[in-house]
# Entry
Amino acid sequence: MNIGYLGPETSFSNEAALDVFPKGKLIALNSIQAVFSSLMTGEVTEAIVPIENSTGGSVSTTLDELIEKEVYITGEYYLHVKHNFLARRPLDKIKKIYSHSQAFSQCKNWIHLNALGKELIEVASTSKAAERASIETDAGAIASKLAAQRFGLDILEEGINDESENITRFIIISRTRELPDDKEKTSLVFGVKDKPGALLDVLSVFKKFGVNMVKIESRPSQVKTWEYLFFVEIKGNTSQRNVNESLNEIQAQAVDFKILGSYSKLEK
# Structure
């Protein structure tokens, strides 16, 4: 089974893919768009992509691709992201530190306390940072444990990110929609008609049928300027009568309605 993920190797997406698909053939792709495209062409049979981070918010590219591509969410996985300081020499011998811009921003406190005066160099990925640190004798990197193993670096300090609960939520996607039985959550996307109270009318349907909405987020429509689509997550699945009836009523009221799938949280 070919599994697509957002590369490069040793990235946190790679770590999530290894956790969810320990026996799959993992294929690293260079962008989220490429992951979705590979799924559509059949190069991969399933894929895993980030959709939300506890500190950085939603991944807009993933949301946009879910709108455009005929794919379904079949599961979700939560990865605790730990940034680590990697090097081959002690910190006092290090003159420059490589990492991705997001990793630097998530490790500001550690950098302030331990790396003032050292040159911080942004690169395309934490994997590339570890590779550079493995080549240069006076360099270190902020990257993953996988990167330390891949490039033969020592983990001098572990878990240096400011927020200990730095969690990225990934979704597993497929071109095949799974049966909803026993699934914990359902995701959907829709637009609303241009009239006063249209969104409120749609959302009130969930209350009418006793459905618990756990998330809503808007994204600009890729078709019409200043119009929006709404991503919604609800508890339950489409085999449950109240959920099914609520979605049928919403579909009649909304525009561009699409069920993205019923799914459950996956454990390592």
